[in-house]
Write a structure and sequence with these properties.
The complex is a heterodimer of chains A (about 180) and B (about 650). With about 180 residues, chain A is mainly alpha-helical. Chain A folds into 2 domains: about 1-80; about 100-175, Orthogonal Bundle (Arc Repressor Mutant, subunit A). Chain A has helices at about 5-30, 35-50, 55, 60-80, 100-105, 110-120, 120-130, 140-145, 150-165. In chain A, α1 packs antiparallel against α2, α2 packs across α4 (about 60-80) and α7 (about 120-130) packs across α9. Chain B contains 20 helices and 16 strands. Chain B has about 650 residues and is an alpha+beta fold. Chain B folds into 4 domains: about 5-55, no CATH class; about 65-145, no CATH class; about 200-285 and about 475-655, Immunoglobulin-like (Sandwich); about 290-465, Rossmann fold, CATH 3.40.50.410. Chain B has a 6-stranded mixed sheet, sandwiched between helices. Chain B has a 5-stranded antiparallel sheet with strand order 1-12-14-4-3. The chains are: A mainly alpha (about 180), B alpha+beta (about 650).
Chain lengths: ~180, ~650
């Protein structure tokens, strides 16, 4: 099956259908713009073409996100070499694809959650997104980011705890800027 | 693990990350600590809000030229690709693509991504075996910038050298992808047309008869569409399956009847002059320790169409989850079907878990689908290992794309019906997208004493095989039929909300040979009737006033104040004879706001379904009102399923602001 050229092409085509939007969204949070994110994602799929699909098919998303992340970080490092890998630059981005009109429509809870999220360090936001946006498991996230499974567990636990505290009705969701350093 | 698990462990547990001993340890703590249970619930609540926040996927995609370049690369002969990968070939692929799509600024590749062969200023060699190329294209100048430094950097990141997949091979093969998202067209999916049940005048026909339905596939399918940024086709929205997706907090039965009946009446939120009656059934819970021994046959479609990231790998992950829930004395066999059917694993006790897991692991796709032969073999295997008084069940996992052999739904249904008499039950699991044959699978499950779920991601697999494993495996009552008789003194007309393809002829109610739906352990079944009280004009489409009939007849008990009587027929799982239950109901007269959270939530889901279907009966039900009703009825929301609905409705509103 994978040896048949057509099947291979179809398989990769369906992988593109399924993952391109998610990978572009993920990469553009790192690179800062959708155009270079597209290039990164194209590279990711080109790399996929070179692999033995039988070894990858069972853990495709983790593979894709890992390769995509490394490519994106590399591109970003190249474009702004002074930025550290895990600084807050990642979080500065707006949710891609959400235009001003759509944003008005966005429900109030999402806005609250987003505001609270923005106060977390970028590395923690990334892990939370991989877990709750991409639905990767701790192990997969560990594979994607290089953090140990234990650290992933801690980052998620701690992130949820902080979000809980900030999203409690009696507490304001906004905090002074200094809060970032503590996380 | 410590006496008290660390906080992180509770979080990991709440997110479904623990298994084995770690999970058992947390469960022990949860059993005795209300604080720990609360903690887990709060973590899940935050998780649901995060998911809601992240739910929308922007419809970004590769440019056509970028995609063409990847597909050209994918189509290259694997052997030569691996032996002599060359940057030139990839470039030529890009060039070939850009010949079709005129794109001057097309930058197909980041050169550093392909460092293995191109080094420094070496001349580029072209060896693209399968790519037509009019003339050797000069390498873009960017290619010259490739540096060893970049290579080393990538190598340091673990990106280019050695076996980049090695790390996942062991660690990650357990968990597969969660969702299927795409903007691809769904042009080969098949849904049967659904016409909303109409209002029926009680003077014309005071009875309504239907079969229960615990299927939930329509909800997961609708969710897939919305998350993909598309409105689902109307016929993919089966309101009763949306309603029944959600657990409701109905009390379980205490007596000999295997389920409890809970009725509630309140004002109809989408038509305030109407009343809404909720019928709620709750199946007896069967704790894991009391579950009868199981004899399961997995029937796995390994045809070529299953070779997609969200199909066979997800099937494998789902089966691994199920095997983890089974007990050592349970048995599992695996039958595969494609070009030819075959027994991939003879019936094996779960005590030998390694053999089962390794058989699951080695499943690989190939061939075309010949469903009927596989189904026969699976039933034969189940019959050969039949456990008297146990759970005997075939679990079919497929995209339903039966395209060879017995392909007409009718023939398959007859085959399944014949097999049903053997006492073996069927669970149909739909996977994948694009060619999901929803109608075929639902019919199979309906006719095979079965249930049907659509599994679009790991979380859904967990719901079916972990959270509700008892209900999925253990049937506590079969052929459950409901007949409602309305009191003409209290009801002018009625309409059954949903259950369009479950409506039975009245005479089928007492006919024990007529198949009907089953209820699994702990399952809840919810049905809603919209009722027009006497004195309220029926300004609904499809109902003409009767010209010749006398006014509503008055039976002896019509003055009782009763609104209706619910009659139920059901069979014990191993019996061919039904028992009957009658439950009369009076209208409490309560307003919608006074109704229970379960009632209001079910009404919200119905409103959502009607809005998606753009039903002529939707009245004031819109996505906006449904969202408000749902938001006000979240209740305990264990598992965060209700919160998910709220975010899903919000997503639908973005797609269809006017529904």
């Amino acid at each position: 099956m994978a040896s048949s050229t057509k099947a291979r092409r179809d398989w990769i085509g369906s992988a593109i259908d399924q993952y391109q939007a998610r990978l572009i969204r993920f990469a553009s949070r790192i690179t800062g713009d959708v155009e270079s994110a597209r290039d990164v994602v194209q590279d990711t799929f080109l790399r996929l073409c070179r692999e033995d699909l039988d070894l990858i098919r069972d853990h495709l998303p983790a593979w894709l996100f890992r390769v995509c992340r490394n490519r994106a970080l590399d591109v970003r490092k190249k474009e702004s070499p002074l930025q550290a890998l895990d600084d807050d630059g990642i979080s500065a981005l707006e949710e891609p694809g959400v235009g001003p009109h759509a944003r008005l429509e966005q429900d109030a809870d999402a806005r609250l959650v987003r505001a609270a999220l923005d106060l977390l360090p970028a590395a923690q936001q990334e892990v939370l997104r991989l877990r709750f946006q991409e639905e990767l498991s701790y192990k997969e996230i560990s594979g994607v980011t290089g953090h140990s499974v234990g650290s992933v567990g801690f980052l998620i636990h701690d992130g949820i705890k902080k979000l809980r505290a900030r999203l409690r009705p009696e507490e304001p969701a906004r905090r002074p800027e200094g809060e970032r350093a503590d996380a | 693990m410590h006496e008290e698990p660390r906080e992180e462990d509770l979080t990991a547990y709440a997110l479904g990350e623990l298994d084995g001993e770690a999970r058992t340890a947390v469960e022990e703590v949860l059993a005795r600590s209300a604080a720990a249970r609360r903690e887990v619930e709060e973590v899940r609540a935050v998780a649901a809000r995060l998911r809601g926040t992240f739910a929308s996927v922007p419809p970004e995609a590769l440019t056509p030229a970028q995609r063409a370049a990847v597909e050209a690369e994918a189509a290259r002969e694997p052997r030569s690709r691996r032996r002599s990968w060359s940057i030139a070939a990839a470039l030529a692929a890009g060039v070939a693509a850009s010949l079709v799509v005129v794109a001057v600024t097309f930058v197909p590749l980041r050169r550093e991504a392909l460092p293995r062969v191109y080094q420094g200023n070496q001349p580029l060699t072209y060896e693209p075996p399968h790519i037509a190329r009019p003339a050797p294209a000069p390498p873009p100048k960017a290619a010259q910038r490739m540096s060893n430094e970049a290579f080393e950097k990538l190598k340091a990141l673990g990106y280019v050298q050695g076996s980049p997949d090695g790390f996942e091979q062991n660690a990650l093969s357990k968990d597969v992808d969660e969702f299927a998202r795409s903007s691809a067209p769904f042009n080969t999916e098949a849904y049967d047309h659904i016409r909303d049940n109409a209002f029926v005048l009680v003077a014309q026909d005071p009875r309504s008869t239907f079969s229960v339905d615990v299927d939930t596939a329509s909800y997961s399918n609708v969710r897939r569409f919305l998350r993909d940024g598309q409105l689902p086709p109307k016929d993919a929205v089966r309101v009763e399956e949306l309603i029944n997706y959600f657990p409701y907090a109905y009390e379980p039965p205490t007596g000999a009847v295997p389920f409890a009946v809970h009725m509630e009446t309140a004002a109809c939120p989408w038509k305030p002059t109407h009343r809404l009656v909720r019928i709620g059934l709750k199946g007896r819970e069967v704790p894991r320790g009391e579950r009868p021994q199981s004899n399961l046959v997995f029937l796995i479609d390994i045809s070529g169409s299953m070779d997609a990231p969200n199909k066979l790998p997800l099937v494998k992950a789902a089966l691994r989850m199920l095997v983890a829930e089974l007990r050592p004395e349970d048995r599992v066999a695996i039958v595969v079907y494609a070009g030819a059917e075959g027994l991939a694993l003879p019936s094996t006790p779960v005590a030998d878990k390694a053999a089962i897991l390794s058989a699951i692991e080695t499943l690989s796709p190939g061939g075309t689908t010949h469903g009927s032969a596989g189904i026969r073999l699976a039933y034969e295997t189940a019959a050969a290992n039949f456990i008297e008084g146990g759970v005997n069940r075939v679990i079919l996992a497929t995209d339903g794309d039966f395209n060879v052999g017995v392909t007409s739904a009718g023939e398959l249904v007859r085959l399944i019906e014949a097999k049903r008499k053997s006492g073996v039950f069927l669970t149909a699991l739909g996977f994948g997208m694009g060619n999901l044959k929803d109608a075929t699978l639902e019919k199979l499950a309906d006719h095979g004493n079965g249930n049907y779920a659509y599994i679009d991601n790991l979380a859904e697999a967990r719901k079916v095989f972990v959270e509700q494993v008892g209900g999925t495996l253990v049937t506590i009552a079969k052929d459950v039929k409901l007949q409602v008789e309305f009191n003409p003194a209290q009801v002018k007309a009625f309409r059954l909300v949903g259950y369009e393809n479950r409506v039975l002829a009245h005479q089928d109610f007492n006919d024990d040979t007529r198949d009907a739906g089953d209820i699994g352990a702990g399952h809840t079944v919810t049905a809603l009737y919209e009722i027009v009280p006497p004195g309220v004009d029926i300004d609904v489409p499809g109902v003409d006033p009767l010209k010749y009939q006398p006014p509503a007849g008055r039976g002896q008990t019509s003055g009782s104040g009763e609104l209706l009587t619910l009659k139920l027929r059901y069979k014990q799982p191993d019996s061919d004879h039904s028992a009957r239950l009658d439950v009369p109901v009076e209208d409490s007269g309560q307003s919608f706001e006074e109704a229970s959270a379960d009632f209001r939530f079910a009404a919200a889901v119905a409103g959502f379904g009607m809005a998606l279907r753009d039903s002529v009966y939707k009245g004031d039900a819109s996505l906006r009102t449904s969202e408000a009703w749902a938001r006000g009825a979240l209740g305990e929301d264990e598992g965060g399923h209700r919160a998910e609905l709220v975010s899903l409705i919000a997503q639908a509103r973005r797609l269809a602001p006017n529904r």
